[in-house]
Structures are given as structure tokens and as C-alpha cells.
Amino acid sequence: MGELEKINENEYGGAVLFNIVDNIKPEDVSFLLNKIHRIVKPGGRILLKLNPYITREEIEEYKLEKVSDGFYKESSGLYLYNLTKEKAEEILSPYFNIEKYQEIEFKGNINRMYYLVNKK
Fold first, then answer.
1. For the chain, which residues make up each domain, given as ranges?
2. How far is CA 87 from CA 38, 48, 68, 83, in A?
3. pLDDT tier at 23 (50, 70, 90 boundaries)?
4. Is 49 exposed, middle or buried (0-12, 13-18, 19+ CB in 10 A)?
5. pLDDT tens for residues 46-82?
6. pLDDT of 109
7. Domain 2-52+83-118, what fold?
8. Which residue among 49, 64, 89, 120 has the highest number of C-beta atoms inside a 10 angstrom radius?
9. CA separation for the pair 48, 95 (Å, rounded)
10. Among 31, 36, 56, which residue's Cα sits nearest to residue 114?
């Protein structure tokens, strides 16, 4: 994420964030979104994919280690920031307008897709 600091403001017309926002530490999410907001031109498009929201039962089934509220670590070391739709939209709203939200099933999982427009 430090490399984002080196990119000029408004340099790109868009960005793709797949399995990024919900796989980093919560305290890093606002840093990342702020940097994406800075480097994407106003009105630029951002495609954001989030993993499915998992239930308490699934958390237990997958044996996820709770790090903090809504934030877990898999045995492989991968982090999961288990964001509800409402929490995700709260986090996104300072930087982007949500143009469209869509849930897409893939191999039995619901992938959550956000089509965003960078705010000015």
C-alpha cells in the first residue's frame, strides 16, 4: 500500500479492488480507500469485490480466530474483515458514490460487487 503514495493525484481513470478491502486490517482500510480516492480522477470508476458475509456458525465451522470485532484470522494467516453490507457502505461513502450493488453467485458463494464512482 505504500506504493500508492508514489502515484500522482488523479492519475487514473479507475481502479479494481478484488479481495483487498476485506482481507486487510480494519485500520488500513481507510488509508487504502483514501489513497484510491486520491489517485483516481473525480468521476472515475472503481470496481470493488467483497467476499461473502459469513455467519457466526460459519466462523465457528471455519475455526476462524477472532482478532477484534468483525475481524478474523484464518489458520493460513489470511485475514478476514467480515463486513456487513451496511458497514461496507458506511466505509465507502466518504470517498465514493455507490452506483450499483450486485450479488453474484460463484461456486456456491455470494460475491458482493460494488460499482463505485469517485467523489470530487
1. 2-52+83-118
2. 22, 14, 15, 6
3. very high
4. middle
5. 999 999 999 999 999 999 999 999 999 999 999 999 9
6. 85
7. Rossmann fold (3.40.50)
8. 64
9. 13
10. 36
